[in-house]
Amino acid sequence: MSEEQSNPQENPQPAANPNPQNPFPPQNGGFGFGMQQSLPNATVVLILGILSIVTCCCYGVIGLILGIVALILSKKDKALYLANMAYYTESSYKNLSAGRVCAIIGLVLNILYLLLCIAFIAMFGIATLSDQDAMKEAIENMMK
């Protein structure tokens, strides 16, 4: 028998972590084979990203918070995925990326809507915005 062939009775030693900077070594005996997991927050990031777009009409505040939370969670999960790509499914990474894009779009829409609300308050005042008749008069005066 040559040195390259080993005795089938011997148990191979689990491989050491191939990436010492990775705090999450491969599971299942260290060989990287086996079931892959989805990223822990991929679905949450996708839901929060979509909700940040949907809630952009709530004065821009709720969607802004949801978008920021989605971006923070996506940053953490992206670091996990890049540290050990073989351990996580590609579909969960795609969901994470889609959620990140939705969160960015939601942030932009919420910031624009928030700036629009601030501009209306600066132009018309809070008292005018709460009284519809006064608002109609202010708009008609602007049109003349």
Write the layout of secondary structure elements.
Elements: H1 42-54, H2 61-83, H3 90-124, H4 126-130, H5 132-143
Helix pairs in contact: 1-2, 1-3, 2-3
Describe the structure.
There is one protein chain. The longest helix is centred in the C-terminal third of the chain and has 35 residues, at 90-124. With 144 residues, this protein is mostly helical. The model has no long low-confidence stretch (mean pLDDT 82). 61% of the residues lie in helices and 0% in strands. The protein has helices at residues 42-54, 61-83, 90-124, 126-130, 132-143. The chain starts with 41 loop residues before the first helix and ends with a helix. It is built from 5 helices and no strands.
Key words describing this protein structure:
5 helices; mainly alpha; single chain; 144 residues
